[in-house]
Amino acid sequence: MHDDMGTFRVDIEIENPARPHERRTLRSVLVDIGAELSWVPADVLESLGVERYQQWRFRQADGTILERWTGGVFLYVAGKRAADEVVFGEPGDLVLLGSRSLAGLTFRIEPVTKQLVDAGPAPAAVTA
User: Is 44 helix (H, G, I), strand (E, B) or coil?
Assistant: First the structure.
């Protein structure tokens, strides 16, 4: 899904690994490669029973610092699944699909069409 400002959005599903097959769909999530972690509304994560296990600090563009909890989920996007740590977003926070989730899903962004495309095989080190 395209946005007038050159960004784009996708639909994602979230699942608690401890409660398989119970998912929540988030529509029109902003793809943001400038964000390391994905941000999901806390009420969605809480409804799935996702445990808060680590507190992170984030610096905003204006220099202010935010503290938010994170928890582990499975993310589903365009037929792919990845395990990742996501932020428990609070009211007013954006809902984002971040770069770490994109890497785990092995997607890259096609800059001309503003679409997610398969990143191909992951790099590997082999012995000589």
Answer: helix
User: How far is Cα 53 from Cα 71, in angstroms, rounded to an integer?
Assistant: 6
Q: Rounded to a whole number, what is the largest CA-CA distance in the chain?
A: 52
The Cα–Cα gap between 15 and 61 comes to 30
Give 111: exposed, middle or buried? Use CB within 10 Å, 0-12, 13-18, 19+: exposed
Strand intervals (E) in 1-128: 9-15, 23-32, 38-41, 54-59, 65-77, 80-89, 96-98, 107-110, 115-118
Question: Is the backbone of residue 4 left (phi > 0), alpha (psi -120 to 50) or beta?
Answer: alpha
Q: Determine contact, residues 84/45, Cβ cutoff 8 Å.
A: no
Per residue in 77-94, pLDDT tens?
999 999 999 999 999 999
**Can you give the pTM of this predicted structure?**
0.87
**Closest among 77, 70, 73, 124 to 105, alpha carbons compared:** 77
Closest CA to 69 of 59, 58, 61: 58
Residue with tokens 């984002």: 96
